[in-house]
Amino acid sequence: MPELPEVETVVRGLREPLIGRTVESLWYDWARAIRSPDPDSFAARIVGQTFRGVERRAKYILCQLDHDLLVVHLKMTGRLYVTDTDAVHEADRWVHFRLGL
């Protein structure tokens, strides 16, 4: 499980590629990765919102959107990917966000 310094490093690395970008679509390979609301409602609610900020509270990553707060915990693997392609190994992908400019 990532410790605080690793979580802070992830937060700092997410700010530039996320802030100001809009979620164009969202899909998931593992529905249990989304806790609340149910995965379909979550996707419908998040699409169209823009990332406004990324902060850390303890070991949680807080992504401020237009109207919601997306809370992320890295769990045991401790990985988030921001890529221009689908280069991430399939076993490591559970929830996918397609972002616009």
User: Given the helix and strand composition, which structural class is it?
Assistant: alpha+beta
What are the low-pLDDT stretches, counting only 5+ consecutive residues below 50?
A: none
Q: Report the sheet-strand fraction.
A: 25-35%
Order of helices and strands: HEHEEEE
CATH superfamily: MutM-like, N-terminal
Largest sheet: 3 strands, antiparallel
Give the mean pLDDT: 84
The CATH topology assignment is N-terminal domain of MutM-like DNA repair proteins
**Helical residues, percent:** 10-25%
**Count the strands?**
5
Number of domains: 1
CA radius of gyration: 13 Å
- With strands numbered from the N-terminus, the spatial order across the biggest sheet is 2-3-4
Shape estimate:
globular
CATH-scheme architecture: Alpha-Beta Barrel
Write up this protein:
The protein is of the alpha+beta class and 101 residues long. The protein has one domain: N-terminal domain of MutM-like DNA repair proteins (Alpha-Beta Barrel), CATH 3.20.190. 23% of the residues lie in helices and 28% in strands. It is built from 2 helices and 5 strands. Strands 2-3-4 form a 3-stranded antiparallel beta sheet, covered by helices on one side. Strands 1-5 form a two-stranded antiparallel sheet. A hairpin with a 4-residue loop joins strand 3 and strand 4. The relative contact order is 0.27. The mean pLDDT is 84.
